[in-house]
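Subject: two folds for Thursday's group meeting

Dear M.,

Sorry for the delay on this. The cluster queue was jammed most of the week, so I only got both jobs back this morning. I'm pasting them in the order they finished. Each block is the input sequence followed by the predicted structure tokens. Could you check whether the formatting survives your parser before we put anything on slides? The first protein is the one we discussed after the seminar.
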Amino acid sequence: MVRYSPFAPPALLHCAKRVEIRTLVDLDMVNKLYDGGFYKMDPWFRYWTSYRAPGVVTAENLPSHQAKDDFYSALKPFLGDMDVIAMFLPAYGGNSITMFLEREERFNHEESVRLQEIYPIIRSLHEVHIKALMTQAWLGAPAAKDSLLQLPAAVQILDMNHRTLYESEQWRAAKRQFPSFARAAETVRATGERRSTKMDFGTFHVDCMDFPDLWGRNLKVITFEHSQSVATPLDIEKAISEFEPVVWTPREREMVRLILWGNSNEKISEVLDIGVGTIRNHRKRIYDKLYISAERELFAMFLNSLIGEARVA
């Protein structure tokens, strides 16, 4: 179970015990890379932050440029061979609590349909759970309850008249820490939904409340990130631009960048304004240079280069 947020890295909330996988790779290092920025290439993270569409999502449901095959193929030596189905349950301010079902055997169509049928029941139970937690917090439950709400950062929830309904402990701590915090928060309240405002000491994000029937309609969620937490240790764009196991031509470098971001041939053709057949030819030359035959091998080479750099660091 993972919390996906538009404003923070994914957070692992719960994980059932997995069968031990024998590998020569340091799994802790892989986890560190993911938390440090590799999560930006996670197709499930990209799906939620792009569309925020609740429901049951399979690999076939993912848009072609966010297909999971290459992401998981690259991680296969570390995670094992698996099929995955995700259930996205909407939470506060654009966040999702996402349940993953994983197994080695492929999920068939009938099983996918069955999960689609029970999803409304699971979502209803999830909403009841969320409302109970929010009510406890509103009534003055201990600060430890903040962790149960699985909020990504300092959070304030306002009603349609801008009256405060809830403030997390992290929000109250930020008010104590930064003298201009309260004034800045007052300013960003007037901004529209899905807007971000950067200050010297951090960034405020404004979004809507996903359960408007809890305390009324048009509730506003303001999330604050300290400037130190905004910075990502791993700059994926920079890592991709510096990935050069061989000498690239300018066109090959751009092709590799677009491929590693998970773009299909059709999407790359659109971006570069050249034919799909030409894209296929460029791909073949890139693969020949690297003595590989598939995109997943390119992806695995990139991941292994990150692991090597992380070990040196």
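Second protein, same layout:
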Amino acid sequence: MRYHLCCHPQAESGFIGERAEHAGKDGTMARICRTPRQAGAPLWACARVGRIVEWVVKQDYCFSKAGGCDQFELGGSGTDFFDENSTTTRCRFLANFLAAHTPSLDAGFISGSCEARKKPVDPDDDENERFAVPDIITHEPGVRMEFYEIKPNSISGRRAGREKVETFLSLVDFLKESDSSFPGYERGIQFDPDRSIVFYRRNYLGIVPCEVALHYRRCTESGLESGLIVYEICVEVNGELLEALAKAIIVSAVIAALVLLAAAAAEALGGIILAPALLVFDSPLGNSVGREAVNDLQDVRYVQALTADWRVGVGGEPVAVDGVFGEETAGAIADFQTSSGLDETAGTVIPGSATCSALESAHLEGIFTAADFSGLSMDGLGDRVFREDPDGVDQEAEEVTDTQTAFNGMVQQYLLDLHDNV
């Protein structure tokens, strides 16, 4: 199947080729980049972000090749292999690709050798990839015989990428020694991307206009220059950006992306995968906020932030997030209560109350609608991200749970982190 890029990622680029943080002051731009795991996203979400990245990089890779990609499918003869959900396991899919282009190879033997190289559980590997199957392989003798691995841009991610590259090379060397007709593959160097694709824009908490982008590039660290593509998620704001807030923004962007793609996957796969309407969580608000209330500093800041988010969303002015409860905060809460049709109208927020739940839900609704994948072809992406893995759930590495429950837990942790750090 010939594969072409519909929309080139660079068209959505807002800040290309820069990884360092900048402490913005007096209107300058501040930018912080972190992997999803570094930002606090759970492992199941990190793995799905990895699938999104692989999809995006695949499009870019095919765009970069003259004539696009000839994608390999099981039983076919395509020259471009992509490690994505197939109807069989990763090792069998890889074995079939190698045997399709070197018929003298024993696909069953290769699959078994691949399985034997399954690495132990590594809690530092964000994506928990335990098989030595590269993300991209191209078989074009005399033109391109190379492979690439895609990993998060962290110390542990780069280490896992290096180990996976070396493990696959050991398999390649073994096959070359066993079969002289097998040409082998080298670490990739022809594909050299450096892209940033904005996929989330909003006025975070009503006070932080921000853009969040996926940034990926070929690794430049010594010894890793060939065959490894690394990625991170970057948040950029106009002004000073604190580390804790940057992490919250990144996690909110991941949540938004998963909600958008889950809706697309539901159409393709049938049934509900995860849905905001089924969201269940406990408020992190510790004590009451309002007149004659407890008004703990962090509780007040949390309520002020949520109220500011709602106010700006309806065209009003934000509330100062200073941890001091006063008439401005009381009035803003009362306005929210009235606007939302709540019976509570005294400008007080109590843990577990209708006002508390409505404020948090309004904030989350703003997040859920902020993802924007319009710069990319989304055809099949939701299916790719949420389709069941043919290798099955790794009982050694992760707890078995349904996606909605896992999503509820992710949102719960996000709100708790927001409460503690705003």
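Two things I noticed about the second structure. Strands lie at 2-3, 29-34, 69-70, 80-82, 136-140, 144-152, 186-187, 194-204, 208-218, 228-238. The radius of gyration is 24 Å.

Cheers,
T.
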